[in-house]
Amino acid sequence: MIRSYPYSQAKSPGLLKALLFAALLLASVVTSADDGEGFPAWVSAVRQEALALHISPQAVEATFNQVSYLPKLIELDRKQPEFVTSFSAYVNRRINQRVVNKGKQMLQDYQGILYVVEELYQVPKEVLVAFWGMETNFGGYMGDIPLASALATLSYEGRRAEFFKRELFDLMRVVEREHYYESPITGSWAGATGHMQFMPSTLLKYGVDADADGKIDIWESYPDIFSSAANYLSQAGWQPGKPISMMVALPPGFDYSLAQLQANKPVSEWVALGVVGIPDSILSLPRAAIILPQGFDGPAYMVFPNFDVIMQWNRSVNYALSVSLLSQQLRQDMYTLAMPPEPPALSYQQMWALQEALNAQGFDSGTPDGFPGGKTQAAIRRYQATQKLPQDGYPGIEIFNRLTAPLP
Ligand code: CA
Q1: Residue 376 CB burial class (10 angstroms; 0-12, 13-18, ≥19)
Q2: What is the CA(110)–ligand 1 centre distance, in A?
Q3: Residue 386 CB-density burial (10 A; 0-12 exposed, 13-18 middle, 19+ buried)
Q4: How far is the CA of 66 from the centre of ligand 1 (A)?
Q5: What's 289's DSSP letter?
Q6: Per-residue model confidence (pLDDT) at position 25
Q7: What is the three-class DSSP state of 203?
Q8: 3-class DSSP state for residue 245?
Q9: Residue 54 Cα, ligand 1 centroid: separation in angstroms?
Q10: Could you tell me whether strands 300-303 and 245-248 are parallel, antiparallel, or unpaired per DSSP bridges?
């Protein structure tokens, strides 16, 4: 699903503060779930806000007539699986022979539409089908939760109130524009809908009526579905004909502190540093980073600007690499993906404890939040430097054990 959660925009100090506040709030109220007593009053207030935003009374009514409070979603919202699953477990759960076969079948079944969409938007059909597989198992499950209830509940709950309220208003705008007054729009618990799991704001901004029937239909019209996704990727800066990611090999003695998503160099500079496995055809590309999703002793991937485009869709490295790997598999004759095994990722609580331990030992990782962001990785790298360890910044179990071991 397309997300723009606060922690995907942590560069903004305001949002960062909001995120930290949310994390602290989460820590303090996680046991006392709201019984929804204040929900009806909240709904009437938001109804007035919507009307003040000049959303049509008919759309506001249609949306709120369907709204109910769904406390179960709040529990779900507090688990973000992309951030607590190890890379290999994540990929193995999503990409396998069955998924690849089904994706290839879909490339066949929709080849006419996909051909036209690829020509128009210059986004490869294998990439579109990979997103489709990742988001809804090729339309197999798009979610059956009334979107208005999901967005209202998550906004009422407060952890990301403004984000979900904006999406709720945009849902009303979708209802207004497309005249969906009768049956409710359904989707995932997190507010995403359709084959490609668009949030309402994404649908408003990037939805395309490709079959020209007067409606943007991302639930049943395949031209609209593929065109809307391609339009999003194209506008997010997709570079036609350029790679997303490729596995590379690092030379002995490689400085692992260079392997960071934000640390881009021209490909030729990586080659000069001894990185191998890079085809001549991409030597002139000006921008690539190296990432180590399993730490320094796992596979190394070189990632390119198209990888950043995928991360605008979903700000998870595991997700973006999975889309890349699945699209590569869809292009090949044989299924060849095999992830090396690795220990489970640290839990949310362990990650939090790791951040506390880093801070306590003088390696500032920011206010603990349980998410291994850039600041945590930088703190780990500084710790690793003092211990003469490879500076990969990877928050694995070994670092956790070292940092949280009782002092002798
Ligand atoms: Ca249409």
Answers
A1: buried
A2: 16
A3: exposed
A4: 25
A5: E
A6: 43
A7: helix
A8: strand
A9: 25
A10: antiparallel
User: CA of 309: how far to CAs of 2, 115, 117, 328, in Å?
Assistant: 12, 21, 18, 16
Measure Cα distances from 28 to 31, 69, 332, 365 in Å. Answer: 8, 22, 49, 21
Rounded to the nearest whole angstrom, what is the distance from the C-alpha of residue 142 to the centroid of ligand 1?
A: 18
Calculated CA dihedral for residues 208, 213, 214, 215, nearest 10 degrees? -60
3-state helix, strand, coil in the chain (%, to 5): 55, 5, 40
CA of 118 to the centre of ligand 1 (A): 18
Residue 353: left (phi > 0), alpha (psi -120 to 50), or beta?
Answer: alpha
Taking CB atoms within 8 Å and a gap of at least 24, the contacts of 153-157 are 153/39, 153/69, 153/70, 153/71, 153/73, 153/74, 154/73, 154/74, 154/77, 154/190, 154/191, 155/46, 156/34, 156/36, 156/38, 156/39, 156/42, 156/69, 157/34, 157/74, 157/77
Joined tokens for residue 32: 């006392």
Query: Of the candidates 138, 140, 131, 142, which has an alpha carbon nearest to the alpha carbon of residue 189?
Result: 142
Q: What is the pLDDT of residue 23?
A: 47
Residue 268's SS3 state is helix
One-letter amino acid of 104: K
Domain boundaries, the chain: 1-32+346-408, 39-78+142-235
Regions in the chain scoring below 50 on pLDDT:
3-32
Instruction: Calculate how far, in angstroms, residue 313's C-alpha sits from the geometric centre of ligand 1.
Output: 22
So what's the pLDDT on residue 125? Answer: 98
Q: What is the pLDDT of residues 125-145, one digit of tens each?
A: 999 999 999 999 999 999 999
E strand or H helix at 215: none
| Segment 271-293, tens digit of pLDDT | 999 999 999 999 999 999 999 99
Q: List beta partners, residue 71.
A: none
For the stretch 18-37, pLDDT in tens is 444 444 444 434 334 567 89
Closest by Cα among 155, 162, 167, 235 to 198: 167
Nearest to 135 by CA among 219, 261, 260: 219
- How many angstroms separate the alpha carbon of residue 60 from the centre of ligand 1? 23
For residue 372, how far is its CA from the centre of ligand 1 (angstroms)?
41
Q: According to the model, what pLDDT value does residue 408 have?
A: 59
Assigned CATH for 39-78+142-235: 1.10.8.350
